[in-house]
């Protein structure tokens, strides 16, 4: 079945995106829900993306715009049964397109260390030392857009 990625435009889609994040980060990875949900989730200048296979929501990502030139990808998640099907890549492509549309020159993200190969394949470069976020090792990554 074909996967599509859309920008979240209504409360139902947002609820679907948040449910995916809860399942992946809170239930699967044991991130405290108090850390998973933050002030950016309801900020007017944040773009939430939703990946759908048919009518089923299967992945999500969030894009913030912390500076004039930079976008920040956060909360990329795909449901376990749908991993390895290119959904993460589709979400990344759409996130980058959103950033470019807004005139951003760089995408930054904090990747879980186990996901570094995924981001390297998409031409992201990691730098600095690993750091802990919610008990999970991360590294900062960047890509010129």
Automatic annotation (TrEMBL):
It comes from Desmospora activa DSM 45169. The lineage of its organism: Bacteria, Bacillati, Bacillota, Bacilli, Bacillales. Residues 5-145 form the N-acetyltransferase domain. This is Putative GNAT family N-acyltransferase. It comes from the Bacteria. GO terms for molecular function: acyltransferase activity, transferring groups other than amino-acyl groups. Keywords: Acyltransferase, Transferase.
């Amino acid at each position: 079945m074909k996967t599509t990625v859309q920008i979240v435009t209504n409360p139902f889609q947002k609820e679907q995106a948040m449910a995916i994040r809860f399942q992946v980060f809170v239930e699967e990875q044991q991130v405290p829900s108090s850390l998973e949900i933050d002030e950016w989730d309801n900020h007017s200048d944040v773009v939430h993306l939703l990946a759908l296979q048919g009518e089923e929501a299967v992945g999500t990502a969030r894009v913030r715009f912390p500076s004039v030139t930079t976008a920040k990808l956060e909360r990329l998640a795909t449901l376990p049964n749908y991993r390895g099907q290119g959904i993460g890549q589709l979400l990344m492509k759409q996130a980058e397109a959103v950033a470019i549309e807004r005139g951003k020159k760089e995408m930054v993200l904090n990747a879980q260390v186990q996901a570094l190969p995924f981001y390297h394949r998409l031409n992201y470069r990691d730098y600095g030392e690993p750091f802990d976020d919610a008990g999970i090792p991360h590294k900062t990554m960047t890509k010129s857009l």
